Amino acid sequence: MTDQVTRPDLAAIQEWLLGTCRDLGLRATGPDDDFFETGGTSLTAIKLIAKAEERYGDGALPPDDLFTQSSMHGIAASIGRNATVTGTPGESRA
Amino acid sequence: MTVTDRWVLRLRGAETSPRVRLICIPYAGGSPEAFRAWSSGLAPDVELLAVQLPGRGARLRHPLYEDWKPLLDDTFAALEPYLREPHAFYGHSFGGRLAYELTHLAETRFPDRTRRLFVGGCRSPDVPQQTPLLHTRTDADFRAALEQMGGSPAEVLRNDLLMAMLLPTIRGEIRLAEMWQDWHPGGVLAPITAVYGRDDPIDSHREMRHWPRFSRGRGEVVELAGGHFFMTSHGPELVHIINTRLEEDDG
Fold first, then answer.
1. End-to-end CA distance of chain B, in Å?
2. What is the mean pLDDT of chain A?
């Protein structure tokens, strides 16, 4: 492996995101669903940002991105750009 | 997605053809999602809609309103497709003021379609705004006051990144709420149900008891337990009041 950060796979992020949003009580089922139109609020936004950072590293989901590109694919793309860890279970930041 | 889709959320359709459409308007900075909890308690033939103003959720970056006139014109335009059939408004606090103004417009444009106006936690137009005003305070004081009011979770109010995005919206709508006065020579035709929280430090019985004067129909003032945000803390009780009144209006 090089010292370059391996970007996590978008499809994997998308899948993680939909599952996490459902755990937060949202009704999102597909990439076109909007975070705020499927039940997202300021409070769920904070929770999602915290979970994204836990999994994909600090700053993985900037709040500004979440509010301005709030579809599931928009959010997944933001995490893809900003992730500092791949988020694969069992893999570390190294 | 059309403009109307972003402005108006349909939180719940009616099971049959809707008898009446309940259009809800949240408090300053509030999310239309605040009304979703009402879905299960409302009578099945009531359709539940909520207004999403700019500056929150997917509309975070849409320009905020600094004056009542454009706010009213644009909100009314977004709601127009929904006002041709029987409807009622519920507005809470800042949303109550907006609901009263929208009722005036709706009655001019679509006569006899507004079945009732519900206002919650909102002074009547003739009662002067409490001072000192909130909207002129510094950010730190303003946030402390919001936390004391109890409408938003402390987790949200203490998050600096999130507050940097949301505070202009909340402050802007509280400013409009504080500037609002009695601008109409007569009241609305629709009956008014004014609901206050017994322990509301902002707009309780004293500030809400004159609401019946602002309806040329019938008016009533109803007490619920709870503070300024009784619509959240005592949702089922409030929904019960709404159900019984909408049923009476139909009879």
1. 38
2. 86
At B175, the amino acid letter reads R
The partner residues of B224 in beta bridges, in order of sequence, read: B197
ipTM entry: 0.71
Contact B120, B238 (CB under 8 A): yes
**pLDDT score, position B76:** 98
Q: What pLDDT does A93 receive?
A: 43
Please tell me the distance from the alpha carbon of residue A60 to that of residue B31, in angstroms, as a whole number: 25
Q: How many CB atoms lie within 10 A of CB B172?
A: 21
DSSP secondary structure letter of residue B128: P
Is B166 in Cβ contact with A36 (below 8 Å)? no
* Residue A47 structure tokens: 């929770």
In whole angstroms, give the CA distance from residue B249 to residue B251: 6
Q: Domains for chain A: give ranges and CATH numbers.
A: 10-82 (1.10.1200.10)
Q: Which residues of B touch A67 (CB under 8 A)?
A: 57-58, 60-61, 165
Query: What's the gap in Å between the CA of B118 and the closest CA on chain A?
Result: 24
Question: What fold characterizes domain B3-250?
Answer: Rossmann fold (3.40.50)
φ/ψ of residue B221, rounded to 5: -125, 125
3-state secondary structure of B91: strand
Token digits of residue B222: 């109803």
Q: How far is CA B98 from CA A61, B88, B109, B251, in A?
A: 35, 13, 16, 28
pLDDT surpassing 90 at residue B13: no
